Structure formats: C-alpha cells, structure tokens
Amino acid sequence: MTIKIPDTLVARYSGVAFPAVLTGAVLLIVGSLLPWTYDRSIMGDLTVYFYPAGPQWLTLLAALLAIFLILIPRLKFLHALAEYFNPPAALKALSTTTLIAVVIVLGGIVQPLGGLVNLDPGAWVTLVGALVLFLGSRVLEVPEPTDASDIRLAGWAEILVIVVMMAIVLFGAAYVLGIDDSWYFSGLLIFVGGVILAAFRFGYFGWVAHLANRNRRVLTLAAFVVAFMFPFTQGGSDANMSIAAQILIFSATAMGLNIVVGLAGLLDLGYIAFLGSGAYVAAVLSNSAFTNINWHPPFMVVVLIGGTVAAIFGLIIGTPTLRVSGDYLAIVTLGFGEIFRLSMNNLDGSNGPDITNGPNGIAAIPNLNFFGFDFGETHEVFGLTLGRFSNYYFLLLVLIAFVILVFARLNDSRIGRGWVAIREDEKAAEAMGVNIFGLKVLAFAIGAFLAGLAGTIKAHQDVSVTPDQYVFLESAFLVAAIVLGGMGTIAGVLIGATVLKLMPEKLRFFAENRLLLFGLVLILMMRFRPEGLVASKRRQLEFHAEDEELADVIESDLLVEDTK
What backbone torsions phi and psi does residue 517 show, to the nearest 5 degrees? Predict the structure, then answer.
C-alpha cells in the first residue's frame, strides 16, 4: 500500500524551517567534534578534536534526532511515521530543551574557570547551532495530535521494543548516577526531559501505552528485571547504591501516602511520622547498645510490629480528626507529625520513660542477618562485588513490589473505587451509600502500615534513628513527589520520588538554594502540567475537559476499564 503525504505536511517543512533546522543540526555536529575548553578536568575532558565526551555526545544525539525529524516527510520510507505521528511538535520540544541544556553546560564551564574567554570555538559553534535549531523550529506549523494506536507489530517485535526501552532505562540510570559534575547533571536532566517531552509530543508514548496494555505482564517483568540488575552496573559503588536504596525507601513511603492523598483525596502533612514510628520500633527492638528493651524478636516479627504500630497511630490520628476535611485536616496532621517528633525527642528518661534516648537517638543499630546472610558484608555474585547498600537494595525491592501490589489491588477493588468517589465528590459518594468515615480511616491505617514497613528497614540501613530525621519538610517532599509524579498512579509516584530524592544529591552546587529550585519546579508543573508527569485518566479528564475530542477519548478508555 502506498501512503500519500498531504501537501500541507510537506509545506510545514518548506521555506525557512527546513534549511534552518538542517543548518542548526550540522552546526551542532561540527561543534560537538571540536574542543569546548582547554581544561581537561571539566566534564570528562572536552579538549580533544573529533573525540566527543560527556555533554558533546548529548548535542550529537540532539542533532541526529533533529535531522531524523526534519527528514520524515521528505523520505518515502518514513512516510508512514508522518501519517501517524507528529514530527513538528517533537522538533520544537527537542530544540527548546537542547538550547537550555547547552546554555547550562556552558555555564558549568564558565563558572569555575572564571569567564567566557575560557570557551573554545567548539562551544561557540554548538551554542550557535542550538540557537539556529531553536529559531528554525519556531516557524514550523504544528498539526493536531494524531492517534497511533492502530499501529500493531508482531508479538515478538512488541516484546523487543519493551526490552530495548528497559535496557535504555537500566544503562541510562547507571550513567546518570555516575555523573559527579552538578552542571553536567543539570544539563543532562534538561536534555533527557526534552527527549521524553519530544517523544510525548511525537506521539510515541501514546503508542507505547497501547503496546504496554497488550503486554502488561512482560512490561512488569522487564521493569523488575531492570531494577534487579541495576546493582550489577555499579561496580560495587556504595555511594550510588546508597542513593538508590534511599530512593526505594522514599518511593515505598510515597506509595503509602498515595493511598491517602492520591486515592482518598485527604491531605496529610504529617505522614513522615508513620515512617518514623516503624523506624523507632525496629531500633528499639534491635540489639543496639543504646536501647533499653531486652526483647529482640526476629526481624520478620519486627516488621509486622512496626507496620502495626504505625497503623495504630494512623487510627489514632484518623478516628477523631477525619470529621474535618481540607485545610483543617492538613493542620491536624501537621500537628500530629510535630507531636511525634517532639515525643521521640523527650522520651529520654528526663521528661518521660527512657525509650528513644532523646535527641541523641538510637545509634549502632546492627545490620540485618537472614539465615547467615549478613547485610553488612560485601558479597561476590557472578564475579561482581555487591556492597552493604546493594544488599539492602534487594530487600527494598521485595518491599516495593509488595507495596505496589497492595496499591494496585486496592485501586482496582471496590474499596479503591470508594476512595476515588470520596475524592471526587464526598457528598455524592455519601448519598450513594459509601461509608465515608470507615473508608477514610481505612486509608489512613493502610497507608500508615506501608510506611511503617519501610521504616523498619530504613532503621537498619541508616544504622541510627534520631528525631530530626522526621521533620515536617520530609512530609512536604512526600506530598510533592505525589503531586509532581501524578496523584493516584504507580509509575508517576515512582518517578516523582526518584526525581525529588536524586536532585538534592546531584545538585549540591545549589547548596541552600535547592529548596528554591524545588519550588520553581513545582510552580512550573502546576502551570504547564497540573495533572502530574504520569497522570491517571481521571485526572486527565479533569484538567482537559475543555478539549472535547481528548475528553471523549479519555472517557471511552475509562468506560473500557470500568467494564473490565
């Protein structure tokens, strides 16, 4: 079958746009092959001719992607892509973020070396190329979004696409964590975000979503295989694995809060107290020399006790306060979080029983030991060294799998639908016979239980527990992770938690201004994508109801899901 490309599509690339974009891409390639500075210590040695390093590979990739997008309607074997996808929209997104990334990276050269004079010709050529590419893409006419759901591949080909995507995620994550330069990391973050945005505008993720629905089990299995293989890409680095383990703890806790905030619509600003209660239970019942409790049960028992204690706290805070809602509920939960922190601070034998060792906390918590497997020792697996944090990482993978399973099953159950009904319209849900109070208390209890489980592992991984680890700011970050990623979703919360936990580690040159950066990111999200990075269909319908065509598509998808 011959696919004829409309003349209007070719016209979108005619005139100034095509030569400008092509010129910008060529300049990017040339600039990437030339030195950017004379200092070999900057971002992996950018001083060598025709030997790209670090950010130069990013600009090369951006140039190749731009050439590919601009040539789609001009090459016959790519005409099918032009029929189903949206190259102009992708090119605009790619060129914008490429220009921003180039400016940030060049700023990372100028700032430590002390002036623009330290930029070599390659840097200037690259900057001009990025600017020309950006200006050329501005004159492109962007068509209406298209639907690529009709494109189907053979079963083995779809599985191959999933495998390739997961491999890119695995090695990409390993590469990102290995970057020590904060300026380069910032530029890379912007560039990766731009590529993702370009793929979204292109229509690729819409097609992948349908592909994933047809291969859910394969996608789930591939995701966990990638997560399992990640420690083997780190070469025994405890620094990177420490960050990865902290991300998993943060993600598991945020997933529990997602039940309260994302599904039930209850704003909890003291949720970090539930994580802390589980951590203190594990610390008190450990073999630490700083605990006064002489009962030291097996860790699996401690996990259940920690989760149960956190759930009881959830019931205690939920039962008397869930009669209120909105801002009043937020204030009450904020107060609970502070009460927990102050209580742990005062249980030192002076103002109360000596349980938590007061502000000094409980230190020297021993590493876990399962059936002779010591989590504190290094182990050799297939000739690769796995350190202490890698051991805890694998344990946390089991926890996050359990938490995701619980969340997914609850979300698809009558209880989950009841929570969503309460979130959307509490009065209407009550009129339809939904047990408002009971479901709210259950959301608090289950969310707290999951956070308590994460806390028991966190105590052993961190070796110590102190009250200042559980301040209000941590609760705010948990809520921000859910809002940033997408309320009520699994992938969104995992992405949001990863971004918010990774950025402070890699953007240390911002120092005290990191909170300003987080605030700016959230403001931009609320302005341009209030439904979150990975929005649920109900949230998409809420924020895009004015787009009748898109709203009809989302409503039909929701109807199909409800029928299933």
Answer: -65, -45
Tell me: the pLDDT tens digits for 418-465? Answer: 998 888 888 888 888 888 888 989 999 999 999 999 999 999 999 999
Please tell me whether residue 447 adopts helix, strand or coil conformation. helix
Q: Which two tokens stand for residue 408?
A: 């997914």
Q: Which residues, other chains included, contact 94 with Cβ-Cβ below 8 Å and sequence gap of 6+?
A: 62, 65, 66, 69, 137, 194, 195, 197, 198
Q: Which residue has the tokens 């806390």?
A: 455
Round to whole Å and give the CA distance between 346 and 467: 10
| CB contact at 8 A, 103 and 190 | no
Q: From start to end of 19-154, where are the E strands?
A: none
Query: CB-based burial of residue 248 (10 Å sphere; 0-12 exposed, 13-18 middle, 19+ buried)?
Result: buried
**Which residue, 424, 439, 544, is CA-closest to 488?**
424
Written as six digits, the tokens of 110 are: 């100028």
Amino acid letter for position 423: R
pLDDT, tens digit, 9 for 90 and up, residues 139-196: 887 776 666 666 777 888 888 888 888 888 888 888 888 888 888 888 888 899 889 8
d(CA 354, CA 341): 15
- Helix residue ranges, H only, 72-203: 79-84, 87-113, 121-138, 155-177, 182-202
Closest CA to 360 of 299, 288, 310: 288
CA angle, residues 232, 240, 109, in degrees to nearest 5:
120
DSSP per-residue letters across 213-235: HHTHHHHHHHHHHHHHHGGGGTT
Per-residue pLDDT of 240-283, as tens digits, reads 888 889 999 999 999 999 999 988 888 888 899 999 999 999 99
Q: Give residue 122's identity as a one-letter amino acid code.
A: G
Q: What is the mean pLDDT of residues 191-215?
A: 86
CB within 8 A of 160, min separation 6: which ones?
none
Cα–Cα–Cα angle for 550, 554, 560, rounded to 5 degrees = 145
Instruction: Identify the bridge partners of residue 369 per DSSP, sorted by sequence position.
Output: 374
Nearest to 247 by CA among 489, 491, 495: 495
Helix (H) or strand (E) holding 22: helix 17-32
Q: What pTM, to 2 d.p., does this model score?
A: 0.84
d(CA 203, CA 431): 41
- Which residue(s) pair with 374 in the sheet? 369
Helix (H) or strand (E) holding 385: strand 384-386
Angle between helices 272-284 and 472-485 (to 10 degrees): 120
Note the pLDDT tens digit of each residue in 30-49.
Answer: 999 999 998 888 888 888 89
Say if CB 301 and CB 236 are below 8 A apart.
Answer: no
What is the token pair recorded at 136? 């050329």
Spatial distance between the Cα atoms of 536 and 171, rounded to a whole number of angstroms: 28
